[in-house]
Design brief:
By secondary structure, this protein is mainly α. It contains 11 helices and no strands.
Length: 251
Amino acid sequence: MSNLALLFPRLVFDRAPRAVIAATVLLSLTVPLLARRTSDVAAGFRDGLSMGAASGASTVIPIVAMWLALSAAWLADGVVSELRRDGCGPLVFTRPVSRSGYLLTRWLSGFVCLVSAGLVVVAVLNATARFSGIAGTGLSPVGVVGAAAASWWWVGSGVLFFSSLFDRGEAIAGALLLFVPISLAAVLPPDNLVARAAVLLPSRTMLDVSRTLLAGDPVIGDHILSIAAGGFASVVVSLSVAVRREWTISG
């Protein structure tokens, strides 16, 4: 395992079943809505996809953006904690491989799976729309790569941080990292101190960026910067904590 480049495909393969399940669940819920011509829900979903970038496929894009964020939490789950919980971490790190390099490679394998699943979802939704006679631009294949990157860099890095601290439950913690700031900012008065603090976390910004990219529109540079800064800090702290913790075989 001294060559992480050779190990990377195997790590991607290990994460792939989660991506397949996530994509299957989303498509099983959305494709029938595109094919169905009755009911207000189906009509709204179909009309949203056909409207293109202006309303950004108004009904479809929020669903796909949220799916990417939640899938990022699941695909990043267990990067550190699985090794510690299963007791295989000490065995892995006896090989001539950098701890931080191995953990980062393991983490990035989940990102590759997220991008692949996102491309499949967008391709199937766009193809179904065309087959059903829905005219419009559909979702952006290039945009889904950017949306997956934004989701991974914020949610995935947060889950990596929790995985370096806890033995389990980091995917739930990552989902809370997504929902709690948005919920607090929505229910509390704007001048509330907690609401102001919640806005500092770029969870809402990340979802806005994802929706914009999926619609094929350009994003604001400041939004990308806030996501990049938060994600970078999480990754650096996560790897620092993970490589310095004592690794023992669990009994």
